[in-house]
Design a protein that fits this description.
alpha+beta, Arc Repressor Mutant, subunit A, D-Maltodextrin-Binding Protein, domain 2, five-stranded mixed β-sheet, 8 helices, elongated, WH_DNA-bd_sf, DNA-binding, transcription, LysR family transcriptional regulator
Length: 305
C-alpha cells in the first residue's frame, strides 16, 4: 500500500506535529499515547525513514518529515473538501485550526473574532499563537495568520482585510503650554514607538493633512516596544507621545485619559492581512475562516480607498 493511501495515519501525523507531542496528540484524538506512537511508527515504516526526531524534551521534523507533512495536509484537505461537497448544507464545520496573529491586534481584535467564529461553528477548535515576527509561521505548521503590518514572506498568500487607522496621542498634561500646529512641532518631543520589521521604520513618520500637504519627521524613542498596549500604558503615564491604533484607544479618548494631537494631520495607516499557504486545495474550514475574518474586520478596520 502506498504511504499516502492511509488517510488516518496521515491525519495522526499532522495532529502530532500540530500538538507538539505524542501525549497532546493523544488527548486531541481522544486515544492513548501508545496508540498514537504505533500510528507514527507505522507511517514511518511505510515511508522507510524517520519523520520526527524525538528526545525527552522536544521533537522536530526531519527533511522527509517536512515533505510528508506538506503532502499529508494537501491530501487531508482534499478529503475534507470532497466530504463537504457531498454533505453541503448538512454537516457542520469540523476540525482544528492553528492560527497566529500579531500580539495586541490578536489579543484585542482577533481573539474576539475567534470567539464569534467558534460560537457559530461549535465543532471547530482553534489554537491561537501570538507573534510580532510572523515570518515562517505558516512553514512551521500554522494554518492561517491574521496580522497587522507589511508582509515580508513572499511564499504565502496575503489577502488584504483593511488598514489599521492610527492617531497621534498623549496624556492631557504632557504638552503643557506648548503650541502645536504641525508635525514639526512634535518631532523633538520624547516618543514611545513600536518595534518590528513589518511595521516599517516607526521612527520615520509621514503625515498628511486635509489639504493634501505631506510632512515627514524623524523622532527619537525614549521607549521602543513590540506591543501597542505597553505603548498606551506608558503614554497614559505621561512618558511621551505616540501613534496608537484607534481600535485600542477609543475609550481613552472618550474618558480623556488620552488626547488626540494634531487631529488635522493624519499618520499613515498600517495594512492588515489574513495570510495562508499557497495551495490549490485549502481545507474548507480554513476558507470559511478566511471569509469570516474579512467580514468581521470590515467595521473595525478602514477599507482601502
Amino acid at each position: 500500500m502506498n504511504v499516502f493511501d492511509d488517510v488516518p495515519l496521515l491525519r495522526t501525523f499532522v495532529i502530532i506535529v500540530e500538538c507538539g507531542s505524542l501525549s497532546a496528540a493523544a488527548r486531541r484524538l481522544k486515544t492513548t499515547q501508545p496508540t498514537v506512537s504505533r500510528h507514527l511508527s507505522a507511517l514511518e515504516g511505510k515511508v522507510g525513514t524517520t519523520l520526527l526526531q524525538r528526545d525527552t524534551r522536544r521533537m522536530s521534523l526531519t527533511q522527509t518529515g517536512h515533505q510528508v507533512l506538506a503532502d499529508a495536509k494537501l491530501i487531508i484537505g482534499l478529503v475534507e473538501e470532497s466530504d463537504n461537497r457531498l454533505h453541503a448544507g448538512q454537516a457542520q464545520l469540523t476540525g482544528h485550526i492553528r492560527l497566529f496573529a500579531t500580539i495586541d491586534f490578536g489579543q484585542f481584535v482577533v481573539s474576539r473574532m475567534i470567539a464569534s467564529f467558534i460560537e457559530a461553528n461549535p465543532c471547530i477548535t482553534i489554537e491561537l499563537t501570538y507573534s510580532n515576527r510572523p515570518v515562517r509561521m505558516i512553514e512551521e505548521g500554522h494554518d492561517v495568520g491574521i496580522i497587522a503590518g507589511n508582509i515580508t514572506d513572499e511564499s504565502i498568500v496575503a489577502k488584504n482585510i483593511g488598514r489599521v487607522e492610527r492617531l497621534i496621542v498623549c496624556s492631557p498634561n504632557f504638552l503643557q503650554d506648548r503650541k502645536i500646529e504641525s508635525p514639526a512641532d512634535i518631532e523633538f518631543l520624547p516618543w514611545v514607538t513600536l518595534t518590528g520589521s513589518q511595521f516599517s521604520n516607526t521612527n520615520n513618520m509621514m503625515f498628511c493633512n486635509q489639504e493634501g500637504q505631506k510632512q515627514s519627521i524623524s523622532v527619537s524613542s525614549v521607549l521602543a516596544t513590540e506591543g501597542v498596549t505597553s505603548i498606551r500604558e506608558a503614554v497614559r503615564m505621561g512618558l511621551g507621545i505616540a501613534l496608537l491604533p484607534t481600535w485600542l484607544i477609543q475609550e481613552d479618548l472618550l474618558s480623556k485619559r488620552l488626547i488626540s494631537v494634531l487631529p488635522n494631520w493624519k499618520p499613515q495607516d498600517i495594512p492588515a492581512h489574513v495570510v495562508y499557504p499557497s495551495t490549490p486545495n485549502l481545507a474548507y474550514r480554513l476558507r470559511h475562516l478566511i471569509d469570516y475574518s474579512c467580514e468581521y474586520m470590515a467595521p473595525i478596520l478602514r477599507s482601502d480607498r
